[in-house]
Amino acid sequence: MADHLYELLSPHLPSTETNISRDPTTIQYLNRLPTLSLQALQTTEPQSLTQSAYSTLLSLQALSNRSHKSFIASADSLSNLHASIPNLTRQAQELRDVIPNLDKEAVRFSSKYSRAADNATLEQRKKVMRLSRNVDRISDILELPTLLATAVSSAAASSGNAGTSFSTTYSAALDLYAHIKRLQTLYPDSPLVKDVAAQAEDAMKEMTSNLITTLRSQNLRLAAAMRTVGWLRRVAPELDALHGDGGASMGGGALGALFLVCRLANLVSTLEALDPLRELADQEKQRRTRSLDQKSGTGSWASGHQTEKYLKRYIEIFREQSFAIVSLYKNIFTPDQSESDTAIQGLRGIDARIKTPSQADRKLDPFQCLPPALATFPTHLVQLLTDTLQTYLPNIQDKTARESLLTQVLYCAASLGRLGGDFSMILTELDETDDDETGGLAYEWEEVMRKHRALAGRLEQLTGANPTNPTGSSKGTLQATSLAAA
């Protein structure tokens, strides 16, 4: 029915609407027309069509106003569709061509970073990642040599002060060094730790030099000396090495000898401060020598007043410093009984010698053990004193002044004798001078010793006669010596 109606109406339709017969809406409307009456077709249907067209127009206007941008974009896309499709085809072809290369690179990456076997690349990446995680710790380790050098420099700068900061700074430096050595023990193959340890060794060498300089300082007290020696034992344990095959301590090892050498250097520098007096004494010696050569008698030159001042001050310094050195050594190193006996035998008398090793010791050590440093050190001290006395004492013509100086030497010998180093018998073998000016030095020394013993004996009798003094014999000698020294 709809087809027949369309054939009837097609002559009256515009040429552009000839293909609307296949439209479902058109077919539905043509099927509806036969159901209407003629009167409805003439009256109500045109009005209904007009109303529907107007309603449709309003809907299209509202839709255009609301979605005109989408319509424009759709129109643009539709206009570019003929160019986009070839472009998409070309890109799809390119993607298909690169897929084999991508697969090849994926296989190569998988084989390169495979965990099936030891992979050098992965190990290197692990090291880099581990380094990144531990960068703070490594930075702390790298700062250790700088901190150590700063601590050593600060301690050296404050070494002149007697406060506790000096001790604390050195202790902190030693703790840092012990930590570095611990790291070196834990990681012996690490180049970083080896480099840090090498820098720490340089700082410890500087610290050792500073400590040795401290041992040479003036007015070194027992507490400071013990602290310094203790630090040296920690910094340079090789200085405290054992001597001999028996493993027994021999006077603090090389550290004890180093201590004595440093204190001897201080003594020599203190005595060198007397150079102005020594130069005057040398001038008197030259005048005395010229006087003896010219046989002009004793009145042509001074009687040695400047030499007396020099020797008096020299003996005072020698007495004080020698007693302090030996006393400090004994208090710091505390040798055992066998060493003490050996040291005392080496100190007493001019014929004292070091014990000869037994045959068993010779077999163990064919070169024999070195003697303790304290056994030979006082001999060197006494040699300094005797050389000075032999050189300058003949300048003094006044017998009373000579006896006063020799008495002062006797008290010096008694002072060292309290530590086992009495050298009172050494001066008896000095070279005697038979000229009328000076007389025999050994004879004068014997006279001074005889007078001193007589005075000590009388004082001992006085103190021994007191019934309230049960130990008068031992105290009498001490009182005699103290009285004579006063």
Descriptive notes:
Among the domains are: 1-53, no CATH class; 128-240, no CATH class; 255-353 and 368-439. It has 486 residues and is mostly helical. The chain starts with a helix and ends with a helix. The chain has helices spanning 2-9, 24-32, 38-42, 44-112, 120-133, 135-157, 164-186, 191-215, 222-235, 253-272, 275-294, 305-333, 337-347, 359-364, 373-392, 399-417, 441-464, 472-485. The radius of gyration is 57 Å and the shape is rod-shaped. 73% of the residues lie in helices and 0% in strands.
Write a brief structural summary.
With 486 residues, this protein is mostly helical. Among the domains are: 1-53, no CATH class; 128-240, no CATH class; 255-353 and 368-439. It has helices at residues 2-9, 24-32, 38-42, 44-112, 120-133, 135-157, 164-186, 191-215, 222-235, 253-272, 275-294, 305-333, 337-347, 359-364, 373-392, 399-417, 441-464, 472-485.
Which overall shape is indicated by the principal axes computed on the Cα atoms?
A: rod-shaped
**Sheet bearing the most strands, described?**
none
Mean pLDDT, to the nearest integer, reads: 76
Count the E strands: 0
Number of helices: 18
SSE layout:
Layout: H1 2-9, H2 24-32, H3 38-42, H4 44-112, H5 120-133, H6 135-157, H7 164-186, H8 191-215, H9 222-235, H10 253-272, H11 275-294, H12 305-333, H13 337-347, H14 359-364, H15 373-392, H16 399-417, H17 441-464, H18 472-485
